[in-house]
Write a structure and sequence with these properties.
By secondary structure, the first copy, chain A, is mainly α. Chain A folds into two domains: 95 residues; 345 residues, Orthogonal Bundle (Neurolysin, domain 3), CATH 1.10.1370. In chain A, 63% of the residues lie in helices and 3% in strands. A three-stranded mixed beta sheet of chain A has the order 1-3-2, sandwiched between helices. In chain A, helix 5 packs antiparallel against helix 6, helix 14 packs across helix 16 and helix 16 crosses helix 20. Chain A is globular.
Chain lengths: 497, 497
């Protein structure tokens, strides 16, 4: 086949091949979380490491630099050029880290994470610290290498892998603004909700019924069950591939809201994946834009739509059908249940109002930690001070519900936390943009007509994939770059309106 | 690391690496059958083809021949030497087929198999024949290349991949003996059973209860659920890896015996896999000996043990617990239900007495077909003649329950069918060997004490894996090579005793 773009075509084939190996990795990862019996773990880990090593070799193939340069001279469409930009980025970052460091990091974090599983329940900060010091050391080493290569600061270089183009200066600007008004807003919301009479739902809520309900809600939210599944795992997540998205959730008999809202959250991730541009699948330009943009989709579903009073109206009769009539299912009461704000120690249990406090606290600790401005042993006292400041909660000596609570730090996932709250802010910005073009949006949601939400997201986010930088995507979708004022307006309207 | 066997060690690492990639393939294959939604199929097929191509390259690496020869000069243990023999065999066979032929075969069989799915229900032999002629042609081409390489006849060269060392001369000898007495034995058994009063079980048998029952039976049969699973798929099979065996079965509400006995069958495969020598996993010598030996394990479970009157006694109270009391569950009646013999058109529905007739018929057709002695269009009339001869059943014009019934021929799986009945014969030979050393075996089975069966199989079959040739394994386990007299004695004792 003769072509005017031989180097580009050859690269596209190379990346498609990596994508196919990645497909296998996605499915066996999902299987590990959803299905694998305990004795399968070692053989699975060895097999996945073999695949990771293969992918690393393919990603860092020595000839790729020249091939990229040659392709850049070819007559390409804008889309192909965007694809080439993403290819170059992937190659550039992969070659920054020597394989020995990648392997060493893997060993050190696996040891720390494994011990953490028992150290956390034992509240054993001292024991954790011993394994965590080498984790921080190797993360700094990794950050230094990436910083050298990219010209970014160390922390920014780590964050850039999850959130391309985002800098800690920008995060500080955004979080700095939120920090001004959030503690006061939490106070006012908590005070105001104290006067609400909320009727608690009465369980048990049989898991079989919860599963049926969740599947119905997922289908109502437009997830294509012909191209994906909903299963159970200890830690809910969304994985698989766009043609076969694997979402998981977890159930407990005494409550139905966590599984239901968790499922709504994963459905946002799932629909983004299912609606990435099919004709480009396998190419880097078809990948999801970033972790914050991904999170903006799950939160568009869970918070903007799923915690909307109109959604409570739609869901109420489905609850009656699933569990029988009870006073708690009255739509107004249901909505109050869904939007109850409560200061707490645990990030993953937090509501949308207090959640950013958890994230800002982590950002304010992990950034200086990676930059070498503070040391691992300084973390607990900083944590305590910030928890008092942001949430009026005393956490002294309670490491397990403090700096030991997340798996991110034992795993050296530094630079990831900000994405959660950036995602919430993007989601608020998308909702505001929708309302500008669709003034009757809220009424339509209340009638169970969610199509306008999905259409807007499909057009502005899902189909765009990695065509544009995050800032350009945001401007095209909403007229400006990330602006936390939309998030503030959303919280005020919903919780103080 | 210095070592006295550098070439052997290097080969062992190479084969371990292939094994790990194979692990990924096993899990995604299982997932495709058990979980994958329909729209995931194309991407999955492409990803699995990518993995197959990688494995083919690793298997046929040009340096392997020299490395094998060097390793053969090293001071190896008997076990290492057996491993090397299996490595050489795998390499030797893999290099026989050019990649172009493998790819062409894949395309031709995929087309034939895909069309067959609708041609079979439509009874469309003429339509099928059009796609099947190229399938037979490429299978002959493949057979000719393998025959050139191995010095075997064409059909034997195909069969040798599933059943190393087995020849059509040996199969003809064995099947020839069976053919002498089987049709008469079927006649006598059917006549004798006509007098039995058998009470039919009364359904429905809720699938949830069947699942609980099957799990209990599988656990009772010693399957380790910490190293495997039991799930549902359209076509029951056993897959996965020894550390994580994935068995599947299928349920229907109106009957419980097919799912139960199918599960017992798969558990035989599953325990063989789970008990292959752990310390050698990843090396060819640890692989299951052959397809017939694998089938001898599933049939040791399903037929020798699972259809034993003592097993019916053990299982009867479990049925009462699962489905409530009913007259059909009386142990004697239950056993008559389990061992009912009925001539039929469909191989997969056949009982153990008539099953060999289905297999011999296929062997007698596919062997001359591959050798070029008959042509694809000759198959239906041969089928009809042999069905009359073996089973007194007229199948003229009924292609869908005749030569169109199996997926093997559309997929060019020639040489596989004999393994099913060889497996049944090996299983009878194992049971006879067990009884020689354990005269009280039947009484112990009746008391639910199955440990002697498992211990014998573990010691003589499972732990031996591919240490010996099939004939040597058989002699070591039972004192002689395959002897169909044991199968005859088993059927006579069970059905005419």
């Amino acid at each position: 086949m003769s072509t005017a773009t031989p180097s580009y075509d050859d690269l596209a084939a190379h990346f498609l091949r990596m994508h196919r190996f990645g497909h296998l990795g996605s499915i066996v990862s999902w299987d590990r979380a959803a299905n694998m019996p305990p004795k399968g773990n070692d053989a699975r880990a060895a097999s996945m490491a073999e695949l990771a090593a293969l992918l690393h070799r393919l990603r860092t193939e020595p000839t790729l630099g020249d091939r990229l340069s040659r392709a850049e001279q070819e007559p390409l469409s804008d889309e192909q050029r965007a694809n080439l930009r993403e290819m170059r980025r992937e190659w550039f970052l992969s070659t920054a880290l020597p394989e020995a460091l990648v392997e060493k990091r893997q060993l050190i974090t696996a040891r720390c994470e494994h011990a953490w599983r028992s150290q956390r329940p034992a509240n054993d900060w001292a024991g954790f610290l011993e394994n965590w010091r080498p984790v921080v050391a190797i993360a700094r080493e990794e950050a230094a290498l990436l910083a050298d290569k990219t010209g970014l600061s160390k922390y920014d270089a780590l964050m850039d892998r999850f959130e391309p183009g985002m800098t800690s200066a920008q995060v500080s600007r955004v979080f700095g603004a939120v920090r001004q008004w959030l503690p006061g807003l939490i106070d006012r919301v908590v005070e105001r909700q104290a006067k609400d009479a909320v009727i608690e739902p009465v369980g048990p809520f049989p898991i079989a019924q919860q599963q049926v309900l969740c599947r119905k809600v997922v289908a109502m939210l437009g997830f294509d069950f012909e191209a994906g599944r909903l299963d159970t795992s200890t830690h809910p997540f969304s994985g698989g591939v766009p043609e076969d998205v694997r979402m998981t959730t977890r159930y407990r008999e005494d409550q139905f809201l966590p599984a239901l809202m968790g499922t709504v959250h994963e459905t946002g991730h799932g629909r983004y994946e299912q609606n990435r541009p099919r004709e480009l699948l396998g190419q880097p330009v078809s990948e999801a834009r970033s972790m914050a943009i991904h999170e903006s989709q799950s939160l568009s579903f869970e918070m903007q739509l799923g915690s909307h009073p109109g959604f409570a109206k739609v869901i109420a009769p489905m609850l009656v059908e699933a569990f029988g009539e009870q006073p708690a299912f009255e739509p107004g009461n249901l909505w109050r249940l869904m939007t109850r704000v409560k200061r707490g120690l645990i990030r993953v249990d937090a509501d949308e109002v207090t959640y950013p406090a958890h994230v800002m606290l982590r950002f304010e600790i992990e950034r200086p930690l990676i930059e070498g401005e503070i040391q691992p042993e300084d973390v607990p006292s900083l944590w305590d001070a910030k928890m008092i400041e942001l949430m009026h909660l005393d956490t002294r000596g309670n490491f397990k519900d403090g700096p030991l609570q997340d798996v991110h730090w034992p795993e050296a996932l530094f630079g990831y936390f900000p994405c959660y709250s950036l995602g919430a802010m993007y989601a608020a910005q998308w909702a505001a943009a929708m309302r500008r073009v669709m003034p009757d949006l809220d009424a339509r949601i209340g009638r169970g007509d969610f199509a306008p939400v999905f259409d807007w997201l499909r057009q502005n986010i899902w189909r765009q994939a990695s065509r544009w930088s995050t800032d350009e995507l945001t401007i095209r979708a909403s007229g400006e770059v990330l602006n936390p004022a939309f998030f503030k307006a959303h919280l005020e309207a919903r919780y103080l309106g």
